[in-house]
Design goal:
Layout: H1 3-8, E1 11-15, H2 18-25, E2 32-37, H3 46-60, E3 64-69, H4 73-76, H5 91-97, H6 101-105, E4 118-121, H7 123-126, H8 131-138, H9 143-147, H10 150-158, H11 164-180, E5 184-188, H12 192-206, E6 211-215, H13 240-248, H14 255-262, H15 267-278, H16 284-298, H17 301-316, E7 325-327, E8 336-337, H18 338-344, H19 351-359, E9 363-365, E10 368-369, E11 376-377, E12 382-385, E13 389-393
Parallel strand pairs: 2-3, 2-5, 3-4, 5-6, 7-13
Antiparallel strand pairs: 1-6, 8-11, 9-10, 9-12, 12-13
Helix pairs in contact: 11-12, 13-16, 13-17, 14-16, 16-17
């Protein structure tokens, strides 16, 4: 693995500098590297893949790697980028969420064999801290340092509350570095404050240098991260056709960043692609190849080929898929509300969203745009939302 490639591809910042990290990587004992993930949801998503690929590179280079599950910090809730306080999770919710994380991360990392990645949980040390320990830790930072964070400044301006436990989150994450005595932490650039907190604590408490590498984020043209509310967050639990369809729904401006952050194509190929698009070439084919690459990355070659064929038949030729979700109606003559079908089949997140989709012409019944939010349908009807979601009433 080319060291320069590792230090630049998909990288936002390196602290204290790329040059100092490069020097440390080629001299001295092997680095102990870690990345953490809080199980605030039941699955890993595409944004995590960016730094998982970085960890995989380091594992192949022979460095010691820890994947830390933040089962304790997840109960506190990271306030990063949040306009309001996160809902705190119970211990049971957190444990349920992280069941699949090791298996999903295993698509990129080896947990067995030569130089296996170590899986750790930060409740092993954070849950054992005494109140005196917490007071001593919190004395390392001022309230002013915490309040400098953008999201806290936004809340102050808007008169929204900031709770004391939210100040504790970066301290808890920072203490992870102290307890494990790591040399390098990797994470998305939205985690910069939290990771640098760990750098400060490790230097003060252990007199040890910690390097920090932040990766670029997968964002839309407005700078907004992929999310559930936007309907474009790709998770490891998504079906291949949905993964492919979500990538195809991305704006053209996200094609090149997608290749940079999630594939191994060369910088020269990226440059050629950029020149072609700027020269007027339709980015559709580039986007299709990216969609296939991501399905291949998360599932398999076979799934990528099948998803590409499905997209061609359903979206380009206008054909309906042979297989689609089925909604069971109590009897052949019974009618159900269109809104209920959309919600119960999880095509939309709520009845409010269902009404909005219908009012905006985003739902069809038997190829006809639905306009009545009170519409009732029966057996044999085919409901379509957008280009990817179909339900047959049976």
């Amino acid at each position: 693995m080319n060291l320069q490639y590792f230090l630049t591809r998909a990288v936002q910042n390196v602290f204290p500098s790329p040059e100092k990290l490069a020097d440390r990587m080629v001299s001295g004992p092997p680095l102990l590297v870690y990345a953490g993930i809080d199980p605030t949801g039941p699955t890993v998503h595409l944004g995590h893949v960016i730094w998982l690929r970085k960890l995989a590179m380091l594992q192949e280079m022979g460095y010691r790697v820890i994947l830390l599950i933040g089962d304790f910090t997840a109960m506190i809730g990271d306030p990063t980028d949040k306009k309001a306080t996160r809902k705190q999770l119970t211990r049971e919710e957190v444990l349920a969420n992280c069941k699949l994380y090791k298996e999903q991360a295993g698509r990129f990392l080896r947990f067995e064999g030569e130089n296996p990645v170590e899986l750790r949980f930060n409740s092993d040390w954070l849950a054992k801290m005494t109140f005196s320990d917490v007071i001593e830790l919190s004395s390392r930072f001022t309230a002013q340092q915490m309040l400098e964070r953008d999201m806290f400044q936004d809340r102050l301006r808007e008169g929204k509350p900031i709770y004391m436990h939210e100040f504790m989150y970066p301290l808890m994450q920072g203490y992870d570095s102290v307890f494990m005595e790591v040399d390098l932490e990797i994470g998305g650039n939205d985690q910069t404050f939290n990771m640098l907190t760990g750098r400060t604590l490790l230097r003060e408490m252990k007199n040890k240098e910690k390097y920090v590498l932040t990766t670029k984020l997968l964002v839309d043209p407005t700078g907004k991260k992929m999310g559930k509310s936007e309907g474009n967050m790709v998770t490891f639990l998504d079906e291949p056709n949905d993964i492919y369809g979500k990538i195809m729904s991305w704006s053209d401006a996200m094609v090149l960043p997608g290749y940079e952050l999630l594939t191994d194509i060369s910088d020269d190929e990226l440059s050629e692609m950029k020149q072609a698009i700027e020269g007027g070439e339709n980015p559709m084919q580039f986007k299709r190849e990216l969609a296939k690459a991501i399905v291949r990355l998360l599932v398999s070659d076979e799934a990528a080929i099948a998803a590409d064929a499905h997209f061609t038949s359903v979206h380009q030729k206008g054909e309906k898929p042979e297989e689609m979700l089925e909604y069971a109606v109590s009897s052949s003559g019974a009618l159900v509300k269109l809104i209920d079908v959309l919600v119960e089949m999880k095509i939309v997140s709520s009845k409010t969203e269902a009404r909005r989709q219908i009012e905006q012409g985003g739902v069809k019944v038997n190829d006809v745009v639905a306009t009545d939010i009170m519409m009732e349908i029966g057996v044999g009807a085919i409901v379509q939302k957008g280009k990817r979601h179909f339900v047959r009433l049976v």
